[in-house]
Specification:
Elements (H helix, E strand, L loop, with lengths): L5 E12 L2 E13 L4 E5 L6 H9 L6 E6 L2 E2 L5 H11 E4 L11 H11 L5 H11 L15 H13 L5 E5 L7 H18 L2 E5 L3 H4 L4 E6 L2 E2 L8
Parallel strand pairs: 3-8, 3-9, 6-7, 7-8
Antiparallel strand pairs: 1-2, 1-4, 4-5, 9-10
Helix pairs in contact: 3-4, 3-5, 4-5, 5-6
Length: 229
């Protein structure tokens, strides 16, 4: 049997603040096969984004285990997690998260340069060409439309050919037509590279494009019949 890309066992994540302890994730069990696409839906505050952060190693669980690409993320230190993300994980956010003082080419090349890739610029150029931005390489984020900025973010996420792509409301700041085009591109790149996709979205039409839909409520996976919108 092929090892799953993602395996989460009894995942809990709590944060301590001035108001006391807040239990954000409360016993998540989940497996995602290699190459599978899943959508995660649920109301605001359900823990969807926190789950993505745990899958990327950007948030540390309070209890439980998170395995991605055969590695136990809970056993890795910060430097090891950073290397793991560079090698295996791509992330696309709602708010693009581009460096405003860098061109499109520089933004996409940046993670490759951190990884010590000598061909960073060439690989970044090829990635941007795949997203239809060959004529925008030297443009800064402020000179690009929202859709173009998200395509730069997609190129950056896919440039290292990640085994896992995490997408958090990737069309949230885009109009419907632009968002549809961006998602067509995302699914096209995902299919060509065989990337496992975990997509958080409020858009039912996007959720339905994935192989499987998962609902979250109150920090846990919703049981069949429970309503989460």
């Amino acid at each position: 049997m092929t090892e799953p890309m993602v395996e989460i066992n009894d995942l809990h994540l709590s944060l301590v603040g001035g108001a006391g302890t807040v239990n954000i994730l409360r016993g998540i069990d989940l497996q995602v096969a290699r190459g599978e696409t899943i959508s995660i839906v649920g109301p605001s505050g359900a823990g969807k984004t926190t789950l993505l952060m745990a899958l990327s190693g950007l948030e540390s669980p309070s209890a439980g285990q998170v395995h991605v690409a055969g590695r136990d993320l809970t056993a890795l230190g910060e430097d090891q997690l950073a290397r793991f993300r560079r090698q295996h994980v791509g992330i696309v956010f709602q708010s693009f998260h581009l460096v405003p003082t860098m061109t499109a080419l520089e933004n996409v090349a940046l993670p490759l340069e951190f990884a010590g890739r000598r061909d960073a610029r060439e690989a970044a150029r090829a990635a941007l060409e795949k997203t239809g931005l060959a004529a925008r390489l030297a443009h800064f984020p402020g000179e690009l439309s929202g859709g173009e900025q998200q395509r730069v973010a997609l190129a950056r996420a896919f440039v290292n050919q990640p085994s896992l792509l995490l997408a958090d409301e990737p069309t949230g700041n885009l109009d419907r037509e632009t968002g549809d085009k961006v998602m067509d591109l995302l699914f096209d790149l995902q299919q060509k590279q065989g990337t496992t996709l975990v997509l958080v979205t409020h858009d039912a039409s996007l959720a339905d494009r994935c192989h499987r839909l998962i609902r979250m409520m109150d920090g846990r996976l919703a049981a069949p019949g429970e309503q989460a919108t």
